[in-house]
Amino acid sequence: xxxxxxxxxxxxxxxxxxxxxxxxxxxxxxxxxxxxxxxxxxxxxxxxxxxxxxxxxxxxxxxxxxxxxxxxxxxxxxxxxxxxxxxxxxxxxxxxxxxxxxxxxxxxxxxxxxxxxxxxxxxxxxxxxxxxxxxxxxxxxxxxxxxxxxxxxxxxxxxxxxxxxxxxxxxxxxxxxxxxxxxxxxxxxxxxxxxxxxxxxxxxxxxxxxxxxxxxxxxxxxxxxxxxxxxxxxxxxxxxxxxxxxxxxxxxxxxxxxxxxxxxxxxxxxxxxxxxxxxxxxxxxxxxxxxxxxxxxxxxxxxxxxxxxxxxxxxxxxxxxxxxxxxxxxxxxxxxxxxxxxxxxxxxxxxxxxxxxxxxxxxxxx
Amino acid sequence: xxxxxxxxxxxxxxxxxxxxxxxxxxxxxxxxxxxxxxxxxxxxxxxxxxxxxxxxxxxxxxxxxxxxxxxxxxxxxxxxxxxxxxxxxxxxxxxxxxxxxxxxxxxxxxxxxxxxxxxxxxxxxxxxxxxxxxxxxxxxxxxxxxxxxxxxxxxxxxxxxxxxxxxxxxxxxxxxxxxxxxxxxxxxxxxxxxxxxxxxxxxxxxxxxxxxxxxxxxxxxxxxxxxxxxxxxxxxxxxxxxxxxxxxxxxxxxxxxxxxxxxxxxxxxxxxxxxxxxxxxxxxxxxxxxxxxxxxxxxxxxxxxxxxxxxxxxxxxxxxxxxxxxxxxxxxxxxxxxxxxxxxxxxxxxxxxxxxxxxxxxxxxx
Amino acid sequence: xxxxxxxxxxxxxxxxxxxxxxxxxxxxxxxxxxxxxxxxxxxxxxxxxxxxxxxxxxxxxxxxxxxxxxxxxxxxxxxxxxxxxxxxxxxxxxxxxxxxxxxxxxxxxxxxxxxxxxxxxxxxxxxxxxxxxxxxxxxxxxxxxxxxxxxxxxxxxxxxxxxxxxxxxxxxxxxxxxxxxxxxxxxxxxxxxxxxxxxxxxxxxxxxxxxxxxxxxxxxxxxxxxxxxxxxxxxxxxxxxxxxxxxxxxxxxxxxxxxxxxxxxxxxxxxxxxxxxxxxxxxxxxxxxxxxxxxxxxxxxxxxxxxxxxxxxxxxxxxxxxxxxxxxxxxxxxxxxxxxxxxxxxxxxxxxxxxxxxxxxxxxxx
Amino acid sequence: xxxxxxxxxxxxxxxxxxxxxxxxxxxxxxxxxxxxxxxxxxxxxxxxxxxxxxxxxxxxxxxxxxxxxxxxxxxxxxxxxxxxxxxxxxxxxxxxxxxxxxxxxxxxxxxxxxxxxxxxxxxxxxxxxxxxxxxxxxxxxxxxxxxxxxxxxxxxxxxxxxxxxxxxxxxxxxxxxxxxxxxxxxxxxxxxxxxxxxxxxxxxxxxxxxxxxxxxxxxxxxxxxxxxxxxxxxxxxxxxxxxxxxxxxxxxxxxxxxxxxxxxxxxxxxxxxxxxxxxxxxxxxxxxxxxxxxxxxxxxxxxxxxxxxxxxxxxxxxxxxxxxxxxxxxxxxxxxxxxxxxxxxxxxxxxxxxxxxxxxxxxxxx
Lengths: 366, 366, 366, 366
What we know:
By secondary structure, chain A is of the alpha/beta class. Chain A is built from 11 helices and 15 strands. The first copy, chain A, folds into 2 domains: 122 residues, NAD(P)-binding Rossmann-like Domain (Rossmann fold, 3-Layer(aba) Sandwich); 197 residues, 2-Layer Sandwich (Dihydrodipicolinate Reductase, domain 2), CATH 3.30.360.
């Protein structure tokens, strides 16, 4: 061989441990292993050890454990991705931060504001990067819309809307086991973040909720909700509507719209591909069916951004600059959580509810 | 640490050498290194050695050489990607095949049918996998359209169209250096393949070309063409139109349409993202600007498919099955090349030209 | 001449008098004279007599008067179109009915439910046809959507939305003179009717309003509102959102959406024509600018339907049958008005407000 | 009554006689009677007298005759609409012109250029207005596209396309009786005019045709063609493609596209209304089914324009000015016919055919 010498300028990948090998965790694991060159998935923790082992085997990950603490204790791990149940998010973030690990946490950041306050304290004390899985920000169309807000093309936002309809078949098999508040804390929290992000010059002030169990009315008595419309009032007067539904027969439907004093921008893709069919009954096209299809690139991009942030911290380099506010952190987590918690209150009382002052609290901590 | 043991089920990546570190070669290199987990880019060959070294450094590729022969001689290389000038494609394919390397070759497979015949012989003798870079087949919308043909939703194809408009600024800086026939051999060959693929139950029989140098009329005397419309007649009566232009101010415009006895399907994406803006002058949206943007996923998918094929050969496993004809091989290269060569003749005479019998030749060799 | 004899089977047009020669009245006048063969505009009444005379001259209408009573007294007039200010609608309807004239009344039918009750009584006593100008029902896309609800393609409606954004330039010149409640009584009333019509198997039960003067904040103190979001709760559990804004820079934006247990349907046209332009900055298209452009056909269709109804009454023929509920009458006027009035209350209190029981009242009268 | 006096400023309608009460003639009759206030349909001539009588009765037209000569002799008739078989168009135009009647003639203007020359002579001698039924020019999207060419938004046209797919069920019942050349003389002539109109700064120079009987192959031997692709070369280098098919299962599909040095514009509407449905199998929408649905407004507009031209001649007023070339006259009829006739030649020889010099001939006559 007569190859010439090459000095690699390719940065070393960040080493990531995954906590939670469920559906979303497994998807993140595949992204980290297969689609994000800046990250290596090196360990998987899940008490459901078979799931962790199977995923690790599939991806060639050498380290598996039932206990997340093993990841925190591992000096070869730079960062963790937290994809377990929502009720564990805050404590896992705190433990990870204390161990000096950077954290990517699925939404919500915590299930109440006190918990999130403790995460904020731990992260601040440890000086680690903490990022939340508001993946919608990384979808090309939603980001293009945000850039239009930033450029002034929309003017001052006055009317906003964001909706999430999860795919379904007209029934919700495990409705009985869905925690109360899920539609606000785990589904609409994406919409609340999207709205807050689009209207980031203002604060959410109050909400009014109309919600019901229209898909599974039998579970409404137990507090289950599968359909919700939320009006959010912002400090700059803007009025936003967020809407969620748990069972759209035509697939996964996510849209956003910002109307302002200078124009409007819409995001959201109605079709799965650009192919359009014409037949005896008219025109037809495929619709997006799953979040991991519609947002495949967005899920990759949020983890790639995370890896870049971690690398910047590790290597003392500048954090990535996206030109517009993008990487969602603790303040974003707090704002969206505060809206979701106000919604739970409004859903119970039927009356408008105030959003706990997110900026005040956050500024006090900053 | 108390990690549990894991036996990796992840297959070993195929080791690929790249020949040609120009614009397209560099893009393929980044795909192989960063976006295709089943492939490792392990070596780069280019006589323009600085380009090769710079690319290798960027991607952490250890082996660089000015001479492709080094790649053929390297026992650690499973396969090569040929992305050099078209006039070298055939000989590089032949040399690679003789060295037992699997080949991914950018289009065209050769610049005439004799050359391609020698590639066919060498590939057949060596028993290697040979694949051509007809990336459009791997774009989600074009593939969905092909599936509609396969499913019968379109019926028997009767009218087809395919167009390629390259982005430009209204002039073509290096028009003088563009080889004659480029618009047919390097641009429209994508459209010819798309049409052949959509109408794969039939053979292209004859063509008629109308072409001109409308962007750079000063170079027409030297045989340069930047605008072309081609009518292709198929053995099942179907009539296809292929169209190319070298300078669309609004970006990269690629579309396909198949109309048949039962319906129609269209492919081609008019907008860069799903974001739509509304302002005082109306509605607006971004258009796709570059092939590597519009077809980013398709470029990745064709190389991932190649890696899967190579791995299947290496590991004695079944080749990937896509449900419809997908992976383009030598017969596809031959058919598209035969159409392109007939176009060169028709462009010179102004008369229809017969397409050299592709199936006959291919069957004789098979 | 050797023409053969013909016995005309063409029905005699109904003779219509117009009350109100303002902007909308003049548009209706032109529709009646020029676009609706089943109607003849024969008289115009408006205290602003110059406007009436000018319009009459333009259209060749022979009878002009400042006093609507002249129309009621005219035995050659079959029907009147009421297009004056909202506060006169009810009394004009009552007087017309008592004179035996059929009535087409612009929205709202009245400014409170008592007034509307008196209209109901007068119309019932006289046995005339009374129709309200909910023109959106007659737009091809909105009607197609309603047919999809009727066919079961949508299933049971669960989430609905309707929006109206009037075109504007970013300020509202006569904000000081706009009557309080206009955004609900004159703008959103179209959306309330659209929602009621889509979900006609149920009744609106309660509303919650968030509204503001975001375009003209200086007039908010005087009770002026230019931006509003309304949540409407229906007796079948469905949740609807209606939204209005008085100044969209990109033109006139009207949309509807019905999501149900079996699917979704959307109505609303984003572009003025099907022409799409591509240039250096991307794709662009014209947006609809005026209600009388976007809904030109719908305005014609509602009056043509009115003329058919009047003719059916006059000639003792069967009323037109549209296959789905279409022609909006007093019950529709009452339902939409009840929602608008509840909105005025909710806007003042900031709390949800009950919708006055429309079906109960209407049934009692029926 | 106390009505005030009004002096009508409404112009007297032009009095039109219809020749031909077939499908298209009946549609024009209804437009003239019901949708065009500037025209009165006063007489109908058709040798199939029952059709004429039935249509006259429906519309309240008093004069019916089997003989068009009665219309020419009638001093109360200002103008005629010729909607009989193509082979009679020229002689009817000549007779009408000689009688001093203005003429609206369905396409084609004649079946050969000599015939058309005689029409040109008669029209010039009589000084009447002669207009041809190229209705596509009056469709809002096609006209918007033409305005974009006029404004320079497209630059110099380089690539054009126009297609017509007639609705069908997969067979053509009366294929045996369709005159030879129909696809060029009666269908594609619309496309030829659209292309000529878009590229009106240049002349069509030559054509090349690929055509077949793919729907009804059994009639190909008798000269029947149901599928055709035409390439048209223009004097400014522009290359156009026109395409026609007689049996699209999904309805009536008409599109246009102009690509030039500064951009592109597309016309053609894919859906019947703006309503979009989403269900378990994806997104769907209705497609246009009939020319008289898709082009309803365009058919009305061309006759309204005709009426305005006739009225301008009658009243000595200025002809309507549309800002861009719009009203199609004899030169347009000649250009499109010359292209169609060249196509018939090319279809027979399989070779390119020259287009008879349209401007030369027309200028000689002018």
